[in-house]
Amino acid sequence: MTTLTNAAALDTGLPNAPGGLRSALTELFAITGRRLLHLRRAPGRVLGVAMSPLVSMVMVGYLFRDAITLPAGGDYGEYVFAGGAVQVALACVGPTAVSVAMDLQGGLVDRFRSLPISRSAVLFAHTFADLLVGLLGLVVVTGAGLVLGWRPHTDALSVLAGFGLIVLLTYVMLWLGVLFAMTLGNVETINVWTPFIVIVLPFVSSAFLSPASMPSLVRPLAEWNPISAVIASCRDLWGNPAATSDSFPGLHPGVVIAVTLSVLFALCFTVSLRRYRTAGS
């Protein structure tokens, strides 16, 4: 009976019944530690996550800061920083997808499936370890932003809340990377599609330009892009120049963030775990 209970728990991705929460945490820390050891041998991963945001901040936010005028006024360099910070979250999708796909192709998933550990522990370990890389990348981008002239103009709690939103978005994007790995599977295919997330999504949002200045066909996409909602909330929390909009997402970015990120996380987690259960079988 105990064996059947354990098997059912493992198949659903839940912790083993005898060990409960302690067993689940032990499994999670062990696999996360393994992942961190791999990342320690690849320090360039942090620079890879930070590279696109740094290029955007320098090429757009610094070189063109005097050439672009915001409809609501304000310093363009400070306006761009939130977009660069969000790009850190988007840049985490590809590396996570590739690492999970390589584990699938290399047979590591089969070895994990033969062990008495919960299915979810392996995927959570990937996301927790890669979240640390994202945090380090965010530190690099924030330091560069300060050098380039970005400054927050609110209290410390509001500033931390803004960065908390970036961290939340990063973690959801990591699960999107896991979903890509579990659905696409092929590393070459992942490398073709994931760069579009880092490049296209920010430009079809309020990251670099106000949606009000975009063509009428593109404007609704930019306004309803959940990335725009995160960026708008961060700019408000940091006291930076913001894009003006009378649309529902522009007036209620918190609602858009709560709904879209919750739905996206639930979808990515559910589908990824279901596919992980059957991978290699």
Automatic annotation (TrEMBL):
Keywords on record: Antibiotic resistance, Cell membrane, Membrane, Transmembrane, Transmembrane helix, Transport
Keyword Transport assigned to the entry: answer is yes
Span-the-membrane segments of this chain are 44-64, 79-102, 123-150, 156-180, 192-212, 254-273
Note the coiled coil stretches, chain numbering. Answer: none
Q: Does the keyword RNA-binding apply?
A: no
Q: Where is the ABC transmembrane type-2 domain?
A: 44-276
| Subcellular localization(s) per the UniProt record | Cell membrane; Membrane
Q: How is this protein positioned relative to the membrane?
A: Multi-pass membrane protein
Spell out the InterPro entries in the cross-references. ABC2_TM (IPR013525), ABC2_TM_bact-type (IPR047817), ABC_2_transport (IPR000412), Nod_factor_ABC_transporter (IPR051784)
Record-linked PANTHER family: NODULATION PROTEIN J
Family affiliation? Belongs to the ABC-2 integral membrane protein family.
| Protein name as catalogued | Transport permease protein
Q: Which organism is it from?
A: Streptomyces mauvecolor
